């Protein structure tokens, strides 16, 4: 790393009319002749609903030499950043006398580990692990956390056998009675990240639209001025970074143009700014997540592919069936094969995120080196609504706190919340208990 | 027996061939962006809305599950249907209206073939039905404990199959016909054909739970035992003729509204 004599503050912003863009970690931000800054840890929780075909997910071997299964194959290039964790469970997702409603309980439990109250009115859950983190470390960033999703979830009333839709609309809870809504529109996410901090500043955004110019044009003057004082390495980094921001914005604009052209009355079916396909949508969201981490706009992100019981189709991979319906495959081999394609497709999309995170330089390493990405579902076999032996991936290097590249199997019963307790600890947040946790889990950082 | 099966299973499809096939009074169908669909239509009086995919429209229109439909169905788009009909139209009539819509707007051409297939026959047991027909003015029985927390009105007139505990499936019918139960049995049996040989008409309240896993630790009877003990119905494996719908041709996009 090049150490400049004059250092910039870590939280340096490029400012323009109606826009503030935080910068990635530049060499110039490192005090001259000092040791490199302590890398920042980030964490993301990525949820795929409706369970998994577990026989095609779980590696047969434990330890470092596990063979990638069909569903996990897309992330094989990231073997050195992968922990496959088997045997974890969410006991509180079980009925426990409350009868049907496994999908609602699965969604409600994934990040809380408590048994949600069965009600359509006076909902009761717990603070989710991402929001514990947001409360504790969120003050260090402009955005305490980001809650993102791909499905427009504004369902109200009852959604699953007597459970409020609130339980399956989100994974993030800031209090036991406050579910946090997800942002599905990349445009809104972008503005939240790079606007002037007040998304109500409609005039600035309207002006941008009228003039059809990039948001970054507003800050280029600042960028030019700052660039003169940067070293060659930093200039290149900032240029790359600004290019990536501009690329994201360009794709958002393109998506809006496509929306307008293809569907003049989109109404509820396709709000402006949401790309027309699942693949474009998730990849754009992943790009935004990468930039949010890279610019240290937040260190905690939750991403929900779809709500529990969601009925997305995946015609791009030859699966016209509704996802939830297909997940109740009744052991029909043809249906199971199509469901496995969805599982693998979701993992393939994750690999896009991992690639972006790996390519993004962050101090002496990559963003992926300094992050932890929990990927999984709160149901294993959705056909039978099982809440044990959950599919869990823990990706990234965890800022040196993880020893990835292994498949670890935990004995029954090991609560999923034990994993969360351990991850919080690694993020510097020391809780005594989360949900039904019984302690920290072993073998994440050692063999 | 073969004749009764054919009549029961193909009656709806056969009626679609009549010249007086019902149609929606007003119907709009157009492609919409996105990939998320509903698996059945939403009905409010005479207004019907549905955002879905062509295979679901065909499945609903012909009252057949996917395994009984084959051929060239394009999967290019999700469609939004907004239709208006007589508020008193029956569900069977609405299915026929969807057939008309698909034939008219997508130039759908189909034919039917009969195949021998494994399935189940549902009949009334020797001791007769164990449930009483629901009459107007009757007080509905309480909901079973596995749907605790759900309002009674939310269930009225419907049937659901849920998983209330590990390895157990529970079926709850609230003032529904045996033919609705047969539809549900086809689903929980993985799309296998179930032939309704009960000859029973009318609507009923019923509720039963059964072991849907092979796990011997599950404390619940088999599906056949549950039907026998709770409803007085016999479910037996049987081979029989199954009418398959074959899609010969179909346009990817509908004609203009």
Gist of the model:
Chain A is an alpha/beta fold and 447 residues long. Chain A has helices at residues 102-109, 129-137, 166-169, 186-194, 202-211, 220-227, 232-262, 278-294, 323-327, 333-359, 416-426, and strands at 13-16, 19-22, 42-47, 82-89, 146-149, 158-160, 163-164, 173-175, 178-179, 300-304, 361-362, 365-366, 371-376, 392-395, 406-415. In chain A, helix 4 (186-194) runs parallel beside helix 8 (278-294), helix 7 runs antiparallel to helix 8 and helix 8 (278-294) runs parallel beside helix 10 (333-359).
Radius of gyration of chain B: 19 Å
- Note the beta-strand portion of chain B: 35-45%
Task: Give unreliable regions of chain A as ranges.
Answer: 1-5, 197-202, 208-212, 261-272
Measured as a percent range, the helix fraction of chain A is 25-40%
Average residue-wise pLDDT of chain B: 88
This entry's quaternary arrangement is heterodimer
Spatial gap, N to C terminus of chain B: 44 Å
What is the first-to-last residue Cα distance of chain A?
A: 31 Å
Alpha-beta classification of chain B: alpha+beta
